[in-house]
């Protein structure tokens, strides 16, 4: 079916959409695993411990959420506020790094009174991940130049990709580092191959995200034909073999997951890992 879908794509579409995409880092696996907020089946999300477990799970990327403190430091936390994940209150952007580092991360559904977890800095994450795993940066609220300078300090600027949350971030990154691979989700207007072609031609993303259900086999085949990776989200309450089977049937070659260890085991059984 995958090859049939490719044959059904008009050749002129491929030529019209062809662009010089920024390549993603070279990876050794033929199916890419992105560990969503690290492996938070074992540890609190976005902590060093969750990221380290994802490395042990042999994921290809950890997904981190990057935010800026009141004194201009970069830290990883999904929410804009610290309320849900810590014993403190307030917005990350209004707290200094010293205040952030004093907070204790907790998971109310998995109380652990023996271990103290903290919100990690970007620097701590880079020290952990260098030459061990690639990083998928969900660019929440941060400065492109400050981020790039930190990446270059650790010689990791070729081991990351950036997920874009708003159009201004694309402009910022294209000016700061035109070679950085940028990932975007599909807008609601993209429903089929023709609308996907137009979106790619107009926006020039380097990687596609979104939910795996947003893609059909022909859309995936078209993106593959023009050299554009599609690594959408599979995470959610229903995630498991049935979801992964559907994703593979569509021709997808990468997924973001809440269960990196289980997905790696499943892919190995399928001969895809």
Please provide a brief summary of the model.
By secondary structure, the protein is α/β, with parallel strands linked by helices. It is 34% helix and 14% strand.
Explain what the structure shows:
The chain is α/β, with parallel strands linked by helices. The chain has one domain: Phosphatidylinositol (PI) phosphodiesterase (TIM Barrel), CATH 3.20.20.190. The protein has helices at 2-7, 11-17, 48-56, 97-101, 122-129, 144-153, 167-176, 193-203, 217-225, 241-249, 260-269; strands spanning 32-36, 61-68, 74-76, 134-141, 160-163, 182-184, 207-208, 254-257. Strands 1, 2, 3, 4, 5, 6, 7 and 8 form an eight-stranded mixed sheet that branches. Helix 2 (11-17) packs parallel to helix 8. The longest helix has 11 residues, at 193-203.
Roughly what is the average pLDDT, rounded to an integer? Answer: 91
**CATH structural class:** Alpha Beta
Q: State the end-to-end CA separation.
A: 21 Å
Low-confidence stretches: 1-9, 11-18
The rough form would be described as globular
What is the tally of beta strands?
Answer: 8
The whole-angstrom Rg is 19 Å
Structural class: alpha/beta
Summarize the helix and strand pattern as letters: HHEHEEHHEHEHEHEHHEH
| Proportion of strand residues | 5-15%
CATH architecture: Alpha-Beta Barrel
CATH fold name, please?
A: TIM Barrel
Q: What is the tally of helical segments?
A: 11
User: What percent of residues adopt helix (DSSP H or I)?
Assistant: 25-40%
Which superfamily, in CATH terms, is the homologous superfamily?
Answer: Phosphatidylinositol (PI) phosphodiesterase
């Amino acid at each position: 079916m995958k090859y049939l879908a490719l044959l059904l794509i008009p050749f002129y579409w491929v030529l019209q959409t062809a662009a010089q995409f920024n390549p993603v880092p070279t990876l050794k696996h033929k199916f890419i695993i992105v560990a969503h907020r690290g492996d938070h089946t074992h540890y609190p999300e976005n902590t060093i411990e969750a990221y380290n477990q994802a490395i042990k799970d042999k994921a290809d990327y950890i997904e981190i959420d990057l935010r800026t403190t009141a004194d201009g430091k970069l830290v990883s936390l999904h929410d804009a506020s610290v309320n849900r994940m810590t014993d403190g209150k307030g917005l990350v952007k209004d707290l200094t790094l010293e205040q952030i580092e004093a907070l204790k991360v907790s998971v109310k559904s998995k109380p652990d009174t023996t271990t103290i977890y903290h919100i990690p800095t970007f620097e701590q994450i880079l020290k952990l991940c260098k030459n061990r795993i690639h990083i998928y940066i969900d660019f929440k609220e941060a400065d492109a130049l400050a981020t790039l300078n930190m990446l270059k300090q650790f010689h990791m600027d070729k081991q990351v990709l950036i997920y874009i949350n708003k159009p201004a971030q694309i402009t910022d990154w294209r000016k700061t580092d035109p070679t950085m691979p940028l990932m975007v989700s599909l807008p609601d207007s993209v429903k089929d191959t023709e609308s996907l072609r137009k979106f790619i031609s107009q926006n020039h993303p380097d990687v596609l995200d979104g939910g795996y259900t947003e893609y059909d086999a022909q859309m995936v085949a078209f993106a593959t034909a023009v050299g554009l990776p599609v690594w959408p989200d599979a995470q959610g309450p229903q995630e498991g073999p049935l979801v992964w089977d559907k994703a593979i049937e569509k021709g997808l070659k990468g997924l973001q997951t809440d269960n990196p260890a289980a997905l790696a085991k499943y892919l190995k059984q399928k001969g895809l890992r």
